[in-house]
Amino acid sequence: MSPLPEAVLDRTERYILPVYARPPVVMSHGKGMYIWDTDGREYLDFSAGIAVNALGHADEGVAQVLATEAQKLLHTGNVFHHQWAGKLAELLVTLTQREGGVGWEAGSMHPPSGQTNGAKVFFSNSGTEANEGALKIARKVGKARWTKASGKQADDLSCDKYEIVCFENAFHGRSMGALSVTPNAKYQKPFTPLIPGVKVGKLNAMEDLDKLVNEQTCAVIVEPIQGEGGIRAADIAWLKALRKKCDETGAVLIYDEIQCGLFRTGAMWAHSTLPIDAHPDIVTMAKPLANGYPIGAILMRDDIAETMTAGTHGTTFGGSPLACALGYHVLSRVSERPFVANVAESSAYLHGRLSLLPNWFPEILQPEVRGRGLILGLGFKKQSHPAKLTELARERGLLLLTAGTDAVRLVPSLIISQAEIDQAVDVIESCLHVMQTQ
């Protein structure tokens, strides 16, 4: 190992909290789909900063916006207005109306029947913060609905509409509220007790819904495609039943699309192509929105937003001029029709190539490729194999991620080409050959 990375690793060990399990590689710079370490080694990046770098590394347009806006206005706090928050919020709402989501059918610029005029956005700094905010909003909506039904005051201690429902293998974040709805003992156990009133169900288990969601439920939070949990998709019929149950009980349905949203599936939202009776009240987002600059957001229908007034939620850094300018630039580009068409074409090609591998390595791989769009997973029969594949692939110049206990996750930048897909799958195939002979 050359002196430079050795010095970096030594400094990290001395001064950085040791909460990350990382290989002894120090990254130097990137361009497009590729990233280089300080030894000059090139890697094809199929991790994209954990599904963040939608436009790849060192994108010239992103760099230009960053440089221009940084010379104008970095930060104001939310005690003053600036132009970019409203522009990005408008783009998020109008694109959702155009592409479909939170109750709008694709191509509709009019609110769903019985709803008010539109939707509202709250900007945060991260996905965890977006989920925390969504849970807070749902709690407030729950109190408002309980007050209306009971005739009592919102601060009455007898209010029992506060329970939250989440699902096994979910990942919603690491702060205390988000952690409480991330039912994984590895993450939760060291920090118990967590917030009370959380119920955990099984994804796609129809028979559980009546027990899970009831009059005491204020919120249900679910990922349409679980990312960290192993690239597991929720069934459409189950989401429709969940939507129906939330409507019957007055619970707020939250879709966490932090990893699967914003065109990663080839549509604005993972739920954009679903029937509107499988849509949520709130959708949370973050990862790709500013291509690596920290930003998160909560998008909610007006009938949910109307309970939130001045002082009920806030943030110092969320929705800064720079973050929102970058978000506006990135979202404008990834929503262009040719770009979206390329995502669809690339994802179909990647899925096609990956789908051959279980037939060639049946003793290693599970039979089905998981996910859709450019959030795909290979399931393994042995839990030790995902980490082994990522290690072998890194040695051969390909960066992959594990997911859950039995999967490797493929979440490349949305600019991926067929040639880069071929390069990646060829490496994966060679690694599987090695694993097969060991």
From TrEMBL:
| Entry annotated with the keyword Amino-acid biosynthesis | yes
Q: Which InterPro entries match?
A: AcOrn/SuccOrn_fam, Aminotrans_3, Aminotrans_3_PPA_site, Class-III_PLP-dep_AT, PyrdxlP-dep_Trfase, PyrdxlP-dep_Trfase_major, PyrdxlP-dep_Trfase_small
Q: Which GO terms describe its biological process?
A: L-arginine biosynthetic process
One term under GO cellular component:
mitochondrial matrix
UniProt pathway annotation: Amino-acid biosynthesis; L-arginine biosynthesis; N(2)-acetyl-L-ornithine from L-glutamate: step 4/4
PROSITE patterns from the xrefs? AA_TRANSFER_CLASS_3
Work out whether the entry's keyword set contains Amino-acid biosynthesis. Answer: yes
Which SUPFAM superfamilies does UniProt cross-reference here?
A: PLP-dependent transferases
- Hey, which family's this protein in? Belongs to the class-III pyridoxal-phosphate-dependent aminotransferase family.
Protein known as: acetylornithine transaminase
Q: Which organism is it from?
A: Rhodonia placenta
